[in-house]
Amino acid sequence: MKDPYLLHIFNPTKNVSPFDVNMAYEAEFDGVIPYTSVTLEEIHNLTQDTIFSRGPSGAKRTGIFIGGREFGLAMDMLSRARSAMVPPFEVSVFADPSGAVTTAAAMVAYAEEQIREQNGGDLVGKQVYIFGGTGPVGICAGVLAQHCGADVFLISHRGKEVAAAAAREYNGRFEVHMQGISGSTEEEVAELVSRAHVIFGAAKAGVRVVNRHQMSGAEKLLVAADVNAVPPTGIEGIEVNDAGKVLEATPSQARGIGALSIGDLKYKVHTRLFEIMKESKKPRYLEHTEAFAVARELISG
Predict the structure, then answer these.
(1) How far is CA 202 from CA 51, 142, 224, 291, in A?
(2) What would the pLDDT profile of 144-183 be if each residue is shown by its tens digit?
(3) Which CATH number fits domain 103-262: 3.90.930.12, 3.40.50.720, 3.30.70.360, 3.10.129.10?
(4) CATH number of the domain at 6-99+265-299, please?
């Protein structure tokens, strides 16, 4: 095949996600080349091998995707790849570890749109509580919500110190002001839910973090979104296909957004970012801010 579109996947874990490979072929890359157990120190040389092998014109038909499972490490790898470029030998780079970037972008954009539909508002000044807040989706969602002006709380079932440590790390990385808090008991969860304007469920698949009784105390709640599609859902009362359904258990008649609705938008965002890589005449560096901009554009129609 002459002049193929090639995507090199740099992955710090043992395996490359089949999801990422499938998405790349859905975006019609001609070849998808996986690299596993890649260290941060190896990114520079791998990137330069990628950019110099096809010449400046071939670089326009070449991309790098960074996967893995850690949001911070993926951002470091993207930065290291960017610093290895030697114009005019440059390629686009897209980082989305565990699909966290595109999932978080879809979830926050969906929640923002639901608030706008209810009262014309936005996330500015809203209390956003993120269960599973120390994982990659939760952290990325927190950073995005904070950039939108929300007061963000990362919740960990392992206690305040774990959550606070994650908040400190990513506050420093992204110049945000998230707080880490404990959600290790049912009483703590009930108290947090009672304060929330927005709840994001980003915990592990099959783990319920908020039950119906706790939701009955959510007097301020506007939106609850859950990315868990594996039974039981993370937030009781939200079904996987919900796309703004009224949550009857909540006194405020909050809207619920389910995992498959978020996933549908996430898929579109992921696909669009791959298309941007292929279409752009200049190298693009695609991460959470670009993903969120695309999600907002798609959700608003």
Answers:
(1) 36, 11, 11, 18
(2) 999 999 999 999 999 999 999 999 999 999 999 999 999 9
(3) 3.40.50.720
(4) 3.40.50.10280
